[in-house]
Amino acid sequence: MNEITLKIGKNGTYKNISKLVKTVSVTGRRGDAPRTLSATLSDSEQFARASANSGEGQQVLFSCDKNEIFRGLLMTDSRSSKRTLTIKAYDNCIYLCNNKGSFSFKKKSATYIFKYCLKKLGLPLGSAVNTGHIIGELVKKNTTYWDVIEDALSQTYYATGIRYYVSSEKGKIYLRKRKEQTSMPILSLDSNIQSYDMSRSIYKTRTRLTLVTSKNAKKGSFVNSSLEKKIGKFADIQTVDEDVTKTELNQKISTFKKDTSIVDQELSITATGDMRCVSGKCAYVQISPIGAKRIMFIEEDTHTFENGHHKMSLKLSYEKTK
Fold first, then answer.
1. Strand 208-212 vs strand 235-239: parallel, antiparallel, or unpaired?
2. Rounded Cα distance, 36 and 22, in Å
3. Using 50, 70 and 90 to split pLDDT, how confident is the model at 31?
4. Residue 160 has what DSSP assignment?
5. Checking phi first, is residue 166 left (phi over 0); if not, alpha (psi -120 to 50) or beta?
6. What is the C-alpha separation between 284 and 268, in angstroms, rounded?
7. Which percentage of the chain shows pLDDT scores above 70?
C-alpha cells in the first residue's frame, strides 16, 4: 500500500485534501515541457470540500510515501452533479509553453539559450549541463520560449548525436543529458510487468540518404545495403549549407543511421509503479517472448495512484543508449 498526500494552496499555506482523493495520475512525455497531474476527488457536503480555484494561482503538491512527486500550478478545476471535483495541474515548465516572444541568437549554445529563457521569465534554475555545440544563428518571431529551447536542443542533437531533456523538480528547472544511469529499475515479466505490447514499422524507414546544397551540388551520401536487400529502396534527400564541414556531414549521416535507417520499434508496458521510471531516464527490460533483454529509454510515463496502489504505463524506445 502506498501513502499519498495531496495539498492545494498558495503563499506557503496548503490544505491537505488527501482524504478526498479517488485517483491521481502524473504524466510526462519526451518533447513536452511540463509534467501534468490529474486528480479526481470527492465533492460532497459529507466532507470538507476542497477549495480548488484555478483562477486564484493555487499550487498543487503531491507526494507518495513522503517523497515529493509533483508540484505545479492548478490550471483547471471542474465540479459536476456526480459530486466529484476534477483538477489538472502543470509543473512550472508550463510558463515556457504559455509565453511568447521574439528571439535572435548568434553563436550561442543550447545551454545559453535555455538559461536565457529561464532568466527572462524569472523561472528558478536548478542546473544546466554544457551542451557544447555552438549554434550559428537561431531566429524566432512570435513563438513560445519552449519552442526556442526545443529548436536549440534539436539542432544540437543533429550536430552531435546527443540528446538533452528539460525537467522540473521541486520547483526548479533542469537541463540534463539523456544517458544511462549507474543504477536503474529492472522491468521484468517475472516481477513487476503486468502487460506489454511491442510493435514494428518500416513506414518511416529510409535506406538511402543524399545530402545536397540548395544549388543541387552533392555533398555526401549513405546506403544501408543490408536493410535495402530486405525491404527495398526508400530514399531521402536533405539540404545542407554550401560551406558544410566534413564533420557536420558525418554527423548528419550518423544521425540518419540511428534515427531513420532502422526498423522502428516501440514497446509499451503496464507495471507496478516505480517513480524512478520517468521520461528521459532508463530502465533495464526483460521480456523473453519478444527477445527484449536490454537497457531502454523511457519516452512517456503515466503513474496512477488509486485505492492505495501505484501502477504505471510506459512507452520505451529501442534507441541505443550509448
1. parallel
2. 17
3. confident
4. H
5. beta
6. 14
7. 97
260: its cell numbers = 531513420
* CA dist., res. 180 & res. 173, Å (int): 20
Q: What is the pLDDT of residues 240-275, one digit of tens each?
A: 888 888 888 998 999 999 889 999 999 999 999 999
Q: Give the separation between CA 22 and CA 85, rounded to whole angstroms.
A: 10
Please report, rounded to a whole number, the percentage of residues in the chain having pLDDT higher than 90: 80
Quote the CA–CA distance of 151 and 76 in Å, as a whole number. 29
- Cβ neighbours of residue 307 closer than 8 Å, sequence gap 6 or more: none
pLDDT of 47 strictly over 60: no
What is the C-alpha separation between 77 and 57, in angstroms, rounded? 12
SS3 label, residue 91: coil
DSSP 153: H
Burial group, residue 190, by CB count within 10 angstroms (0-12, 13-18, 19+): exposed
Rg over alpha carbons for the chain, rounded to the nearest Å, is 23
pLDDT above 60 (res 322):
no
- Rounded Cα distance between 322 and 319, Å, is 9
Q: How far is CA 135 from the centre of its chain?
A: 23
Closest residue by Cα to residue 62 from 11, 26, 92, 12: 26
The two beta strands, 264-272 and 36-42, are unpaired
Q: For the chain, how many helices (H) and strands (E)?
A: 5, 21
Burial of 66 (0-12, 13-18, 19+ CB in 10 A): exposed
For 91: left if phi > 0, alpha if psi spans -120 to 50, otherwise beta; the answer is: beta
Q: What is the largest CA-CA distance in the chain?
A: 75
283 CA to centre of own chain: 15
- List CB contacts of 124: < 8 A, sequence separation 6 or more: 92, 118, 171, 172, 173
